[in-house]
């Protein structure tokens, strides 16, 4: 009896096809104790492969099917992993400069935080750009729903009006305040656009590095040191 | 069916179970990228969808095309399309509304669609929007101009609809797909009932602006 290679139990071509093996005279003793009396073929040569007169077994067809099967299965699993768990992407731009370099830095995005789940102020998130279709951006969360944030960048000519972040939105700002187009230009960002949280940064020069929580609460001890 | 499956029940159950499992798993990328069927509930889209929801609670199943071209090309979103998008106010919920205005359009606010309540944040935001637009004696040229990358969505049932009148223009990045067909109930299966309905909101079509509105460096170089 042939042993068929199966991918995680996915049936092989012989199982999925509709062909009926007319001649089969070798059976596994454990699973098929008695031979089939319905076999009417008079072939004398022992067949090791089940085959049919209608669909002759073709190695090339079988190979194509097997390749397609493996390709589809890996595509499905990779999609699920990249879409719902983790993805590593190349970041580009100067808006997060002290934290993420302008080029050649890879960000590991945890999709477990998608749509703003379990996010806190100070987390670096990746999101779909609300104005530019198909573009993604990485910024730091400064305000969550209900928080009060400054609308512009005070001291740099921007408005210093305070506003409350609306329900279901967050306020994102790039670390490079002067060269960042963020919530100060496009307003509050819907949390539904957040695709994930940046948990690690990788570059070939520095290897993996953790992202520090950029926004620490001001404490009195640090003033007392001086 | 091969002999081995007929005469080996264990193998038959195993094969059927794994095939079912794989087909279920394959639905995830299919639903994410290509096509999805889902039930729509609520009265906000009646009479186009769920016309009898307020009396019978009957929901409609709709087939969504999730392979949407979001660009400004004619194949992309059009006025009158029904879109499925993530609610801007509730990140884990989806919403179904009709596209009334595309980017650059001038939408004249319908006073009937003002959110309920005099002091609720939605109604105050609506009042601010209307006075800024100049619909009711303000300074603007009348109507709200939909910013680049956004659309104006409204429910068909003007009495009760949580839509752009409450939360403003919606980013196109939030759009998940647009409606293809009604699948359920059976008597309306395969139809597109929303095409018979015309929104009463007045819209002046604007010229589709450049992607992103402001000129990027590459665009500036290209245009000289």
UniProtKB/TrEMBL annotation, chain A:
Peptidase S26 domain segment(s): 72-149, 163-201
InterPro entries xref list: LexA/Signal_pep-like_sf, Mito_IMP1_subunit, Pept_S26A_signal_pept_1, Peptidase_S26
The species this protein was found in: Friedmanniomyces endolithicus
GO molecular function: serine-type endopeptidase activity
Coarse class of the protein's main subcellular location: mitochondrion
Active site: 95, 139
Record protein name field: Mitochondrial inner membrane protease subunit
Keywords: Hydrolase, Membrane, Mitochondrion, Mitochondrion inner membrane, Protease, Transmembrane, Transmembrane helix
EC number: 3.4.21.-
GO terms of biological process kind: protein processing involved in protein targeting to mitochondrion; signal peptide processing
CDD domains (UniProt xref): S26_SPase_I
Family in the record: Belongs to the peptidase S26 family. IMP1 subfamily.
Organismal lineage: Eukaryota, Fungi, Dikarya, Ascomycota, Pezizomycotina
Disordered: annotated span: 26-54
Biased composition annotated in UniProt, kind: Low complexity: 30-54
Subcellular localization, as worded in the UniProt entry: Mitochondrion inner membrane
Pfam family, one: Peptidase_S26
Any one Gene Ontology cellular component term annotated for this protein: mitochondrial inner membrane peptidase complex
Residue ranges of the TM segments: 67-86
The protein's enzyme class: hydrolase
Keyword flag Secreted: no
From TrEMBL, chain B:
Enzyme Commission code(s) on record: 3.4.21.-
Gene3D superfamilies documented for this protein: Umud Fragment, subunit A (2.10.109.10)
Bilayer disposition of the protein: Single-pass membrane protein
GO cellular component assignments: mitochondrial inner membrane peptidase complex
Domain annotation Peptidase S26: ranges: 23-184
An example molecular function term from Gene Ontology annotations: serine-type endopeptidase activity
Alphabetical list of CDD domains matching this protein: S26_SPase_I
GO biological process entries: protein processing involved in protein targeting to mitochondrion; signal peptide processing
Keyword Ribosomal protein belongs to the record: no
Enzyme kind, highest EC tier: hydrolase
Matching SUPFAM superfamilies: LexA/Signal peptidase (SSF51306)
Subcellular locations according to the entry: Mitochondrion inner membrane
InterPro entries: IMP2, LexA/Signal_pep-like_sf, Pept_S26A_signal_pept_1, Peptidase_S26
Keywords: Hydrolase, Membrane, Mitochondrion, Mitochondrion inner membrane, Protease, Transmembrane, Transmembrane helix
Record-annotated active site: 44, 97
Recorded family membership: Belongs to the peptidase S26 family. IMP2 subfamily.
The protein, known as: Mitochondrial inner membrane protease subunit
């Amino acid at each position: 009896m042939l042993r068929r290679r199966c991918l995680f139990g996915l049936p092989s071509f012989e199982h999925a096809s509709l062909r009926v093996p007319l001649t089969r005279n070798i059976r596994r003793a454990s699973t098929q104790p008695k031979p089939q009396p319905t076999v009417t073929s008079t072939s004398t040569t022992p067949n090791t492969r089940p085959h049919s007169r209608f669909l002759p077994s073709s190695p090339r067809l079988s190979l194509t099917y097997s390749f397609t099967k493996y390709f589809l299965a890996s595509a499905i699993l990779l999609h699920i992993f990249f879409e719902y768990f983790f993805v590593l992407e190349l970041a580009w731009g100067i808006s997060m400069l002290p934290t993420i370099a302008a080029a050649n830095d890879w960000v590991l995005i945890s999709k477990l935080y998608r749509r703003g789940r379990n996010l806190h102020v100070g987390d670096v998130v990746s999101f779909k750009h609300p104005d530019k279709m198909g573009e993604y951006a990485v910024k730091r969360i400064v305000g969550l729903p209900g928080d009060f944030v400054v609308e512009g960048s005070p001291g740099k000519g921007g408005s210093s009006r305070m506003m409350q972040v609306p329900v279901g939105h967050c306020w994102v700002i790039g670390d490079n305040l002067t060269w960042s187009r963020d919530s100060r230009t496009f307003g509050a960002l819907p949390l539904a656009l957040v695709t994930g949280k940046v948990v690690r940064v990788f570059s070939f020069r520095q290897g993996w590095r953790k992202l520090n929580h950029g926004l620490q609460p001001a404490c009195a001890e640090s003033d007392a040191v001086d | 069916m091969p002999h081995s499956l007929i005469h080996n029940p264990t193998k038959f159950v195993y094969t059927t179970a794994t095939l079912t499992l794989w087909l279920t798993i394959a639905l995830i990328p299919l639903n994410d990228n290509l096509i999805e069927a889902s039930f729509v509930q609520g009265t906000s889209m009646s009479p186009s969808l769920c016309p009898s929801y307020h009396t019978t609670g009957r929901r409609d199943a709709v087939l969504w095309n999730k392979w949407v071209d979001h660009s400004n090309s004619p194949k992309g979103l059009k006025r009158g399309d029904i879109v499925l998008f993530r609610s801007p106010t509730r990140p884990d919920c989806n919403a179904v509304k009709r596209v009334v205005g595309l980017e650059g359009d001038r939408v004249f606010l319908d006073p009937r669609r003002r959110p309920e309540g005099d002091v609720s944040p939605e109604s105050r935001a609506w009042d601010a929007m209307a006075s800024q637009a100049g619909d009711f004696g303000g300074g603007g040229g009348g109507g709200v101009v939909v910013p680049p990358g956004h659309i104006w969505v409204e429910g068909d049932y003007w009495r009760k609809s949580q839509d752009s009148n409450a939360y403003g223009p919606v980013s196109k990045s939030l759009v998940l797909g647009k409606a293809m067909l009604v699948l359920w109930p059976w008597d309306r299966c395969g139809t597109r009932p929303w095409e018979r309905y015309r929104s009463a909101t007045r819209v002046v079509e604007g010229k589709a602006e450049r992607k992103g509105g402001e000129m990027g460096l590459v665009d500036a170089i290209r245009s000289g």
